[in-house]
Amino acid sequence: MRANRSRTIAALAFLAPNLVGFLVFTAGPVIFSLGASFTNWNLQQTVPTRVNGFANYSELLGDHYFWLFFVNTLYMMLGLPFALFGALWLAILLNRKVRGLGAYRTLLYLPSFASGVAIMILWKALYNPDFGPINETIRHLFTAVGVHADTPQWLQSTHNLAALDVEKVGLSTKQFGIGARDALILMGIWIAIGGNNMLLYLAALTNVPEELIEAAQLDGASPWKCFANVTWPQLAPTTFFILVMSIIGGLQGGFETARVMTSGGPAGTTTTLAYFIYSLAFEQFRIGYASAVAWVLFAFVFVATLINWRFGNRAAEF
Amino acid sequence: MRTFLLVSIAVLVASSLLVWKLQPSSSEDGRIVLTWVSDENPARKAQAALFEKLHPNIKVNIDPANSGVEKVIVQCLAGVGPDVFDAFDVFQLSAFARSGVAMDVTDELHRHGIDLKAQVFSGILGTCVFEGRTYGIPNNIAADGLWYHADMLRNAGVSLPQGAWTWSEMIPIAQKLTLKSPDGRIARYGLMFEWWNWRHFFAGFGAHVFNSDGTRCTLDSPSAVAAVQMMYDLVYKYHVSPTPVEETSMVTQGGFGSGYISLFAAKRGAMAIGGRWWLEQLRQAKGLDLDVAESPYGTTHATHAYGRGLLVNKDSRHLQEALEFQRFLASEEYLDLINEQADGAAAFKAADEKPSFFHDPHHPEERYNAAWLHILEIGKGDDVSPYVDSNTVARLLQVQLDLIQAGQKAPAAGMRDAAANINDAIEKSVAEDPSLKERFHATVESTPR
Questions:
Q1: Which candidate from B5, B98, B417 shows the least CB-CB separation from A13?
Q2: What is the distance between the alpha carbons of residues A286 and A49, in angstroms, rounded to a whole number?
Q3: Are B270 and B191 in contact (CB under 8 A)?
Q4: How close A72 gets to chain B, by Cα (Å)?
Q5: pLDDT tens across B389-412, in order?
Q6: Of A125, A167, A283, which has the smallest distance from its Cβ to B391's Cβ?
Q7: Labelling A211: which of A302, A312, B264, B334 has CA 20 to 30 A away?
Q8: Which of helix, strand or coil describes residue B170?
């Protein structure tokens, strides 16, 4: 009994530095923010701070900006399937035994090493409507095929492919087109394809048993059937993991890009819930309300993960 | 195992002590260190150096990394704020004053014979005085005039009227100065202005964001709509100023200053609305033949005045030294330095009326400082409402300005929606605060309709 207690104390002592850090810098603020979400706490101290029950949560339900930015957040996640399958496609290419494979892998993973801000500034230049290489290329293509059309205004435009309205949750045909949100989605896909998802798929592909593929080939399966019936099922746990993490990241995302590239504009079209929380807390100083939004965002993430777990986990088992 | 554990704990304790020892000290070489949160303007170094020369017992560390209202407020409330910090406009001052981090120095300045209302230009008072109480001393002042390339105007055979003139006089001149390249793109704009500078147009049209008691947003007033309509027309009707897309294509510069100044210096614009502080960059461009005139106005002979006010953290660990630094901003040495550096202009009128201001021997080509003095005199500050948070106002207005600037909304519709949204915000803010509610209703009831 004494030996057990001694071992427990020793284990706790070893864990202490990390545990204390977690409690003080993660768990503590999280619990604190939960408490703050039930108060009217405002850093400008115009009103004495007091507990206001569920007032922030009920305000949030009727706050059309919250829903507007929630829709923005969901729209920005439309790139996730493309990013996922793009990463898989790249991993399959990089899993082939070709000369210079190491160099290809390094080159394609390079964006993950580069500073996020640097990448965003680079893309900002690429999206320059007048002189950016993207629009220059589009203009050349238009000229080659004889099309007379305007090139997208990218980060300057409120347009979007789903024709989402700018000022209210709903659709507006006036807003149909390519704009800032689509520009950020494209950039996000580019970053994600060569990133950690590709590495995860690459690791998973190396674990697919060769004998299964060989057996399928001996049975006369085409390369596509081999992939669809042997490789893809073997990748299911990895796909499930990437999907869950991508959805969590997507719901929490959009802050850095909005901060660096668009300041949430034009007209709030690239403001996601994460940026909205920042704006509420540190620009409008409404800490209580910002905490409530943060917790509702947490609830969305939690529910999305539960749904994934409930249905996706079953699909991943084989 | 026990030995290993004890050694680990000892290493952790020793590391903690080492970090404690290495933390930045509040005194250096026996000198007290003041932290000044300001912008990254290189001129700040010379300003801090001058103070250190006059006060050898104090060192000033400039901290541009923490410039930002939210950072300063959060740090001050957490007890780790800077000793002194800048408020860049009336909105920031209201945030600092309301959050209780800025020290009320009304009595302090009175004791030292500093009377801002009598000594500084009225347009800058808003960055220092909030609801009748004084919190800061202005670091500088700027008011926007019209920069122009005198040689371009000469070559085009046009001249600008002396003194006050209107937009209707300006437009044909700007059109004459706008040049197109063979591919149809505009190679030189007649007039350059920045959309964030909507307050300049507001001043010239006598428009206000709020009514006089701050109880209602008046962005939908005819004067406010006319101001924004003029901005819109300069771009889309008269084609003398860049569209947002053209603006993005041209402005690429980062760092301190403005990309617009570089473009103006590169002669992409014949005229530009800007302040005397542009000289900090324009002096680096050689061979320019520059001059300054009053900016045109719509209905009111006025321009927008702005600048910075230096505030003191009321919980500063070096309060006396911080107050000393604040008062330094009223000294002759500091005011002369501001004028020499062209960091805007000195906010104290007496410094701008000295012969050395009109004829700087180091810059004899700058023959237009008399024009700047006049522009400063007609400068009007910002108005603010006690009933709504200024950042909320800025955000709600920005959404509409984005839509107007992009040509997606007519100015009248955009300003109407901005006013409606801001009035909703006022209503909400008043409902949340019983004392504010009481004050609001008392004000509304006492105002004759």
A1: B5
A2: 11
A3: yes
A4: 15
A5: 877 888 899 999 999 988 889 999
A6: A283
A7: A312
A8: helix
Two structure tokens written together for B317: 């660990």
Q: What confidence tier does B251 reach under pLDDT thresholds 50, 70, 90?
A: low
Q: Least CA distance to A266: which residue of chain B?
A: B402
Start-to-end CA distance of chain A, whole Å, equals 44
Using CB atoms, pick whichever of B1, B99, B392 lies closest to residue A10.
Answer: B1
Q: From the centroid of its chain, how far is CA B94?
A: 14
Cα–Cα separations (whole angstroms), residue A202 to A208, A312, B82: 10, 21, 50
| Residue with token string 């350059």 | B192
CB B339 within 8 Å of CB B357:
yes
Q: Which residues of B touch A129 (CB under 8 A)?
A: 245, 248-249
Whether omega for the bond prior to residue A266 falls within 30 degrees of 0, making it cis, is yes
**Which domains are delineated in chain B?**
26-142+306-380 (3.40.190.10), 145-209+220-305 (3.40.190.10), 390-446 (no CATH)
ipTM over 0.90: no
Closest by CA position to B355, among listed B341, B343, B339, B344: B339
Residues of A with CB under 8 A from a CB of B: 10, 13-14, 17, 40, 43-47, 125, 128-131, 153, 155-158, 166-167, 174, 265-268, 279, 281-285
Read off the pLDDT of residues B131-173 as tens digits, 9 standing for 90 and up.
899 999 999 999 999 999 999 999 999 988 888 999 999 999 9
Give the total residue count for chain B: 449
Optimal mutation site among B67, B248, B404, B435, interface A, most CBs of chain A within 10 A: B248
Q: Which of B99, B252, B432 sits opposite A47 (nearest CB)?
A: B432
Residues 6 or more apart whose CB falls under 8 angstroms from that of B71 comprise A282, B37
Distance CA B312, CA B105 (A): 8
The 8 Å CB, 24+ separation contacts for B241-245 are: B241/B174, B241/B189, B241/B190, B241/B191, B241/B192, B241/B193, B242/B186, B242/B189, B242/B192, B243/B407, B244/A156, B244/A266, B244/B195, B244/B405, B244/B406, B245/A129, B245/A130, B245/A153, B245/A156
Chain B contacts to A (CB-CB under 8 A):
1-2, 5, 8-9, 12, 69-71, 73-74, 77, 95, 98-100, 244-246, 248-249, 252, 389, 391-392, 395, 398-400, 402-403, 406, 408, 417, 432-434, 436
pLDDT band of B255, cuts 50, 70, 90: very low
Query: How far, in Å, CA of B166 to CA of B293, rounded?
Result: 12
Measured between CA atoms, how close is B245 to chain A, in angstroms?
A: 6
**CA-based nearest residue to B278, from B294, B295, B264, B296:** B264
Q: What is the 3-state secondary structure (H, E, C) of B82-134?
A: CCEEEECCHHHHHHHHHCCCECCCHHHHHHCCCCHHHHECHHHHHHCEECCEE
Are the beta carbons of B322 and B316 closer than 8 angstroms?
Answer: yes
Domains, chain A, with CATH or none: 17-316 (1.10.3720.10)
* Strand arrangement, sheet containing B145-149: B179-180, B186-192, B269-274, B145-149, B290-293
CB contact under 8 A, B95 and A44: yes
CB B338 within 8 A of CB B344: yes
Q: What pLDDT score was predicted for residue B449?
A: 56
Round to whole Å and give the CA distance between A47 and A255: 29
Q: Which of A44, A129, A283 sits opposite B99 (nearest CB)?
A: A44
Mutation site, A45, A128, A139, A285, interface B, largest B CB count within 10 A: A285
Report CB contact under 8 Å: B395, A265: no
CA distances to A20, A189, A262 from B205, rounded to whole Å, are 60, 47, 30
CB-CB under 8 Å, B9 with A265: no
